[in-house]
């Protein structure tokens, strides 16, 4: 029998069992995961305490699955110490069962924000940083409406530069209310 | 990582002792026992001193390993809370990456010693090829 089915069969036994299974999970999963993360990140209790701004005694209890009285503020400090997010949310039982069934596949190499940022930052750069360089000397946007029409000269007039030699970039994609760019 | 597996020892007369023990517990203990096994199966190194859910027994009970978990309870008379500590015992086989569960025990004083004595007897029987092991479900 696979692990998911085995868990599910037990969850079906009674509502009381399900309640106790959730209670056990809530109390023990954080210590379990914290301990695994400490190992994966080669952190001892002192180092984690320093990073989390907690005492070593609190860390010692936080990684002890038999303690069972972790406060939310300790969990928040632990998340800060690992530089990870912590998500406590209500889920269907199948998701909890799946989490346990897939547990051995968890690498516990959960990347910290800094590690993630190194990968994500390139994609998340503002457009200006990745757009082709443009060197506008003059830039103005005018409404293309009944007054100016689509004539380039009229557009130049609209920005008071009708005698200067510069091009008018007119984008057909923009609708009448969007405007056209006048660039040198 | 290859997950650890848990197996139940079945006596020659077809008794699954850990199942009998499990069935006699209330849901809170059952859930804590199940949760402990589910998490422990994904722990690579059980001998890491940070792993509190397992310990190898020494001296008289060397050769056995105990699973360790507890649940909080309230004393019916005084209302004070206390921990109920449980020590299911079995055979830890590092090469096979499995743990054969022989018996369950709730630790109150030194009472688990007699259970561990009995577990040693079952271990000896198993090593003689008497009884069987089946995947714990």
How would you classify the helix and strand content of chain A by structural class? mainly alpha
CATH topology call of the largest domain in chain A:
434 Repressor (Amino-terminal Domain)
* Number of helices, counting only DSSP H or I runs of 4 residues or more of chain B: 3
Tell me the number of structural domains of chain A. 2
Oligomer: heterodimer
Low-confidence stretches of chain B: none
Would you state the CATH class of the largest domain in chain A?
Answer: Mainly Alpha
Largest sheet of chain A: 3 strands, antiparallel
* Strand elements of chain A, count: 3
How is this structure best described in words?
The complex is a heterodimer of chains A (184) and B (137). Chain A has 9 helices and 3 strands; from the N terminus they run H-H-H-H-H-H-H-H-E-H-E-E. Chain A has helices spanning 3-11, 15-40, 45-52, 56-62, 72-82, 93-101, 113-124, 127-130, 152-158; strands at residues 139-142, 168-169, 180-183. Chain A has a 3-stranded antiparallel beta sheet, with helices on one face. In chain A, helix 1 (3-11) runs antiparallel to helix 6 and helix 3 (45-52) packs across helix 5. Chain B has 137 residues and is α+β, with helices and mostly antiparallel strands. Chain B has helices spanning 17-23, 27-40, 112-127, and strands at residues 5-10, 54-56, 65-67, 69-74, 81-86, 89-93, 98-103, 106-107, 132-135. In chain B, strands 2-3-6-7-1-9 form a 6-stranded mixed beta sheet. In chain B, strands 4-5-8 form a 3-stranded antiparallel beta sheet. Chain B is globular, with a radius of gyration of 15 Å. The two termini of chain B are 21 Å apart. The A-B interface holds A 1, 3, 6-7, 9-10, 13-14, 16-17, 19-21, 23-25, 28-29, 32, 35-36, 38-39, 63-66, 68, 100, 103-104, 106 and B 1-3, 27-28, 30-32, 34-36, 38-39, 41-43, 48, 50-53, 68-70, 72, 83, 135, 137.
